[in-house]
Structure formats: structure tokens, C-alpha cells
Amino acid sequence: MESDDDMVDDSVSMEDDFYSGDYSDYYDDPNDNDNDYCSDDDGDYGLLEDDDDDDQDALVSRRPQLGYTVLNEADIKQRQEDDISKVSTVLSISRFDATILLRHYNWSVSKVHDEWFADEEGVRQSVGLLERPVVQLSNARELTCGICFESLPRDYITSAACDHPFCRACWGGYISSTINDGPGCLSLRCPDPSCNAAVGQDMIDKLATCEEKEKYSRYLLRSYIEDNRKTKWCPALGCEFAVDFTVGSGNFDVSCLCSYSFCWNCTEEPHRPVDCNTVAKWILKNGAESENMNWILANSKPCPKCKRPIEKNQGCMHMTCTPPCKFEFCWLCLGGWAEHGERTGGFYACNRYEAAKQEGVYDEAERRREMAKNSLEKYTHYYERWASNQLSRQKALSDLNQMQTVQLEKLSDLQCTPESQLKFITEAWLQIVECRRVLKWTYAYGYYLPEDEHAKRQFFEYLQGEAEFGLERLHQCAEKELNKFLSGDGPSKEFDDFRSKLAGLTSVTKNYFENLVRALENGLSDVDSQAAAACSKTTSSKNTGATSKGRGGKGKGGSKTGGSSRNVDDTSN
Amino acid sequence: MKASRARLFKEYKEVQREKAADPDIQLVCDDSNIFKWTALIKGPSETPYEGGVFQLAFAVPEQYPLQPPQVRFLTKIFHPNVHFKTGEICLDILKNAWSPAWTLQSVCRAIIALMAHPEPDSPLNCDSGNLLRSGDIRGYQSMARMYTRLAAMPKKG
Ligand SMILES: [Zn+2]
Ligand SMILES: [Zn+2]
Ligand SMILES: [Zn+2]
Ligand SMILES: [Zn+2]
Ligand SMILES: [Zn+2]
Ligand SMILES: [Zn+2]
């Protein structure tokens, strides 16, 4: 039914120390004056900046990782040329043949070597690299073209390695129509239906027009990125960089040189802590709920292999996706065509679906069940929050931009402070942008968290609430409190206080979110033990107002709150 | 357009010259349009179609032979890969496995081969496909034979 093979499993196991911090204290703080956070946190900066310990949860936008490489067109060409040279040398075959082989084996040099040296004959056979012609041409002065059936002088006729004769004009038409059909032209074969001789770039160079040759080269370059399991194009509009990713290097967040960030695995925007499948489900859900997607959902389905929407325009249930995918599947059950029978237990499973549908049974029952299960209200709740965080993030991005281009300079003059000492403001905004993104995705996470896992839900909502609260506090500080210093008319004594407050909030929020991400990526696996305890502790301290107050009071004194937030920090080491 | 017309004319002359070459296939070009052809093919022996004569209609596109002709049965036929109402045929060479070296004649031969070797996994006619898939070969054969008699044989008397 689905093919997950191009999705690498993204459940990365990580040490979980999220809950060891004293959450009830974190929780009790909100009503206090925030200053104690900052002053007490000063001591922690050393720890925070010292980030050699765990690269896994690094914010990509701030700490570049080595798990991937961004490639420009020249890099790609160079790598491709190098790989072709390698194969051509080691196998003693032409560069054209090496290209055909590499493309066939998804540009994996080692795979080509393995297959070739294990069974050269078999590889030649399946790829279509013939060692000698399969037909014996007569010595006549004229030969008959196998497409237009004209008898023509020999020098009008040309052939692939098989020697099947076709005239140059027919070759031209054949090559042109396949090149204009798309990247499928890279696996071009001899036009003779019984022949599988490969037609490589040497033939293209000889027989295609300049424009077609150019197209072919583009497809070849694209193939090097698209057919290679280790590389992908940056999905940003108009960006021509590609990303080479080292599988197994922690999370999938990558940041292109064009400054666009995305999840390498599914090419959506970065979405930690939610996994790729949940993101896909969520995006599909959003699409299904918006009216204008109805048409495409009714008339087309995503190809189960490459996920492109394939429109049904024939009576036949046997669907063939467009090249280069060409995956064959059943329209009704979306199973692979080759294994169709086995999977559905004969043709009957498919049939029953259709019969029920005709009687209008399936539609009604299914719809009612759907409605009952996912009440629209629940969806609206999560979607609204997801979307608001999205908007809020966009706003923060433009504020950050405004800050960097205009405000910082102004502030520097007003406060008589070098711009280099105002970095904490940029950092705060970068943190806000990142946290908005995380928070947004926790709403998709929450939507799919099973209803019956009460303890988990409860704890999740608690953590999310805290995150929301912490982020609002930071966002507000950066947005509103900063304004005071921008509108004043001279250096303000309070600016230093503001600096330590904002820097403190930034680091506390950063830590909180990093831990949140890890906890959710772990599927809240500790919820039964510590989490439940933390929750009940919170509840009890809340219920007994006196205790709560008492704790809060102590927190205000400084040492207690500082201690607790340091706990959170410590645990990430 | 010019190339396709020239190619079709070649095929036409070939057909005229070797009318008796393949006794199972009779290809006829439309009187006024070289892009429209019909064919009469004989049901292969030892199949439920034996004894029947089936008419096919060809619509040849202007990009022929770079693109395949559209072919359908005009005669009713009970076959898993032929749509019972429209006569549409599910055959790979008429879709993505097409090659410009195929001819109308060789397409007819491929269709005769399909009649002898149905592919129940690619059904356009689900009843027929189901019979074969469930192993009810006798049921499939008797249905196919009945339709051959009803639709593809000259009426007696
Ligand atoms: Zn020719
Ligand atoms: Zn050949
Ligand atoms: Zn980019
Ligand atoms: Zn993803
Ligand atoms: Zn596909
Ligand atoms: Zn099916």
C-alpha cells in the first residue's frame, strides 16, 4: 500500500533527561516577577554557550552541523564527472556506458562495482550494454529504416550497438519525442521492440538538436541529485542548490545556503519534534479540509510510490505513473500492481469496495464514522493554534529583519552601546522564530496523540502550556520592553537590566524548548513514571494554595528558582 | 503529419502486396482517411474465440509512429483485458511500451496473442477477470464462447 523506503526512520533515540528538572517549580513561577529568572541565570551562560556536548539538538539556524553538505551546480557537475571517470576507469568502459550504468544503479559507484564484478554478463544484459551487434547488416548499398520503411543509402542510416538500422530523420524524431516526454529519455533503448540496446549520450550528441541536447544534459544533472538516495534539491522556490545528507547524523533539519531550512527526509519545513509521517498526515488533513482541494482529491490520487497526484482518465484500473516513476498500481486499493492479487486476497477486495460504493453504503457510513471520530471542533482547535503560531513566526521573522536593518543601529546610538554588544537582541529574535516553529508543530503532535492515553495527554498539555507561556514571555520582552529603549532620548540605566533579562529569558526558553523537543521525540516515553509524579505534584501544590504561595515566595528569593532552572540546564549536559 | 502519412502509405502498400501473407489478419484503410483503419482478425484456435471474426477500429494520431494508434474492438468480446461496453483494450504496447518500429499489422498480431493469453491481473472486464482469477476457467470459457457465437460468427440461416 505505501512505500516508506524513501523515508528513513526518523525516530532518533536520545537520552532523556527532560523530566529530571523540577517542573513544578517552573510551573509555579509565572506569576512572579520575571527578573529573578535572569539574574539567577547569569551563572549558567558558560554551560549554555559550551555546546560541544550534544549536536543533535542544535538549532540549525545557529550552529551549522556537519551532517550534510550544500552543493551548487558546479559542485554537482564535478561530483558527477568524478563518479563517471571512476567507473569508466575501473570497468574499462566508455564514459557514455559508465553514465548509463551509474544512472541505472542510482549513481552509486559502489553498487555499480559490486554488480559488475559479480555478474558482468547479467548487468550488460539488463542495462542494455551490448558487446557485439545482434543483427548482421547486408552489404547492399541501401538499407531499410525500421521506422519509415524507406530504403536509403547507408550513410543515412545509423544504429545503436545492436546495429538495428534506422534513418537519421527517424532517430531524430524518436529521440526528440522521448526527450520532450521528460527524464525517461535517460533510459532510452533502441526503437526495435525486441531489442534492449541502450541509447546513450553519444547517440544524443550525434542526432538531437542543440535545444534537446541541452534538455538531456539538464535531466542528466537532475538525475544525479534526484535518483541518488543521499541527495535532494533544496525545495525553496528558485533555489538551485542541492543538499547531500549523511544518513544517521541525528535529526533531518538542514539549512540551505539560500537560507531556507527544511526537513531533508520529507522536504517540508523543519518540523521537530513531530515526525515526517505525522506532518504528511497533518498537511493532507489541512488540504482535505480546505474546500478548493476537493476536485483534485476526487479525480486524482497520489501515486503510492512518488506521491505525485495521478489523474485517472481511463477505464482501466491499471494505473501507470508518468516517467520516470512509472510505478504501476491499482486505482482502487493503491497497491503495487505486481503484487496486487496477493495483497488484496484476490480481486474480490477491490470489487467489494466498488459494489458498496455504488449502493451508496460506503460513502454514508464512512462519512458518519469520520464525523463522529474527528469532530470538526477538535480539528479547529488544533488547526487554529498551529496556524497562529505560523503567522506569529512570520511576523517574528520580519521583525528580526527590521531589527537587523534599522533598529539596532538606532538603539546603538541611543544607548551609546556598540552594535556588537546588542547581539543578544538578534539572538532573542532568532530564538523566538525557532520556538514558534516548534510550538506550531506541537499542535499537530497534540492532534494525533491518542485520546485514550490520558496520562500522556495530560502531561503533554502541561508541557505545551509551559512552553507557550515561556515563549510568550520572551516574545513580549523582545517586542514590547525593547520599545521603551528605542523611544527614550538617551542612555537608560535600566538598559543593562533589560539586557540580562532578555538574555536570561532567551537561554531559559531555549533550554526548555530543546528539552521539550527531545521529550516529544521520545514519544513522552517516561510519562508513566516521573511525568505522572510531576503532574500530580503540580496539581497538589496548586490545590493547596498555601503551599503554592510558599514555593513561589521562596522562588522570588532567588536561590530556589535559579536552582531549578539550572537543573533544567544541567540535565542537558 | 507528413512523416506519418508517408509511413501509413508504406504500410498500405505492404498490405496490398501481401494480402494473403497472414491469413488471420485483414487490414483495411478507410476510403477517404488514411488515419482511419479497420481490421478483421480471426479468433485464435484452441481458445473460446476460435471460429469468430472480430473487427478492430484504429485511430492513428498525427505523431504516428512516434505515438501508438488507438485501437478498440468493434465486435463484442468477453475478455478480461477488453472493456465490454467500449471495446477499449488494456495492452502495454498500446501504452508505455510502444515502439515506433511497431506497425498496425504487428499490433493486430499482439492483440491476437492477447486473446490467446489473457492477463487477468490487468482487468478491464471485471466479471471476466474474476472468473479467471478465481480459477473458474470453465466459467470464463463458456461465457467467452457464448459471446463469440452471438457476436463474432455469421448468423446461420
Ligand atoms: Zn526512417
Ligand atoms: Zn536494436
Ligand atoms: Zn536553497
Ligand atoms: Zn520530515
Ligand atoms: Zn509514481
Ligand atoms: Zn486493487
Instruction: Give the structural class of chain A.
Output: mainly alpha
Would you tell me the overall average pLDDT of chain A? 75
The helix-strand sequence of chain B is HEEEEHHH
Percent range of helical residues of chain A = 55-70%
Strand order of the largest sheet of chain A: 1-7-6
Class of one domain in chain A in CATH?
A: Mainly Alpha
In this entry the ligands are: zinc ion
Separation of the first and last Cα atoms of chain A: 43 Å
Count the domains of chain B. 1
Number of helices of chain B: 4
Oligomer: heterodimer
Unreliable spans of chain A: 1-64, 292-298, 341-362, 537-573
CATH class of chain B: Alpha Beta
Keyphrases for this structure?
heterodimer; A: about 575 residues; mainly alpha; Herpes Virus-1; Four Helix Bundle (Hemerythrin (Met), subunit A); three-stranded antiparallel beta sheet; two-stranded antiparallel ribbon; 22 helices; elongated; disordered N terminus; disordered C terminus; B: about 160 residues; alpha+beta; Ubiquitin Conjugating Enzyme; four-stranded antiparallel beta sheet; 4 helices; 4 strands; about 35% helix; about 15% strand; globular; binds zinc ion; transferase (chain A); coiled coil (chain A)
Describe what you observe in this structure.
The complex is a heterodimer of chains A (573) and B (157). Chain A has 573 residues and is mostly helical. Among the domains of chain A are: 86-231, Herpes Virus-1 (2-Layer Sandwich), CATH 3.30.40.10; 303-359, no CATH class; 379-529, Four Helix Bundle (Hemerythrin (Met), subunit A), CATH 1.20.120. Helices cover 56% and strands 7% of the residues of chain A. Chain A has helices at 23-28, 35-41, 45-49, 73-91, 95-104, 109-118, 120-127, 168-181, 201-207, 210-226, 276-289, 294-299, 340-344, 348-358, 361-373, 376-415, 423-448, 454-487, 495-521, 527-543, 545-557, 559-571, and strands spanning 68-71, 142-144, 151-153, 157-158, 166-167, 231-233, 242-245, 253-255, 261-263, 300-302, 309-311, 318-320, 328-330. A three-stranded antiparallel beta sheet of chain A has the order 1-7-6. In chain A, strands 2-3 form a two-stranded antiparallel ribbon. In chain A, strand 12 and strand 13 form a beta hairpin. By secondary structure, chain B is α+β, with helices and mostly antiparallel strands. Chain B has one domain (1-152): Ubiquitin Conjugating Enzyme (Roll), CATH 3.10.110. In chain B, 34% of the residues lie in helices and 15% in strands. Chain B has helices spanning 2-17, 104-116, 126-133, 137-152; strands spanning 25-29, 36-42, 53-59, 70-73. In chain B, a hairpin with a 6-residue loop joins strand 1 (25-29) and strand 2 (36-42). In chain B, helix 3 runs antiparallel to helix 4 (137-152). The mean pLDDT of chain B is 90. At the A-B interface, helix 8 of A face helix 1 and helix 3 of B. Residues 160, 162, 164, 190, 192, 195, 197 of chain A line the site of one zinc ion.
